[in-house]
Amino acid sequence: MLLQKQQIEDAVRSNPAIKEFMDAEGTEPEITADVIDLVKTFQQILERARSRPMLHVDEERSRLGR
């Protein structure tokens, strides 16, 4: 079991920039998020998607332009 754990840890690729987010003891801080935080974030993503400019292309005009 310990060998499998080590193999998994060796196979996981870590981000070198994560050191910026580690505390003084060298451990990664825990990220806490509840369902409300996730829903709010998802709503913000949907709002940004709605506010993106849309580009409508007329199929007939694009054929005539060739």
Précis, in short:
The protein is mostly helical and 66 residues long. 48% of the residues lie in helices and 0% in strands. The chain is built from three helices and no strands.
Describe the structure.
The protein contains three helices and no strands. The protein has 66 residues and is mainly α. The protein has helices at residues 2-11, 35-50, 59-64. 0% of the residues are buried. Helices cover 48% and strands 0% of the residues. The protein starts with a helix and ends with a helix.
Key features of this structure:
about 70 residues, mainly alpha, about 0% strand
Q: What is the typical, i.e. mean, pLDDT?
A: 76
Structure classification? mainly alpha
Distance between the termini: 64 Å
Report the radius of gyration as a whole number of Å: 23 Å
Number of helices: 3
Percent helix range: 40-55%
User: How many strands?
Assistant: 0
Proportion of residues in extended strands: under 5%
What is the molecular shape?
Answer: elongated
Order of helices and strands: HHH
Low-confidence stretches: none
> How would a crystallographer describe the biggest sheet?
none
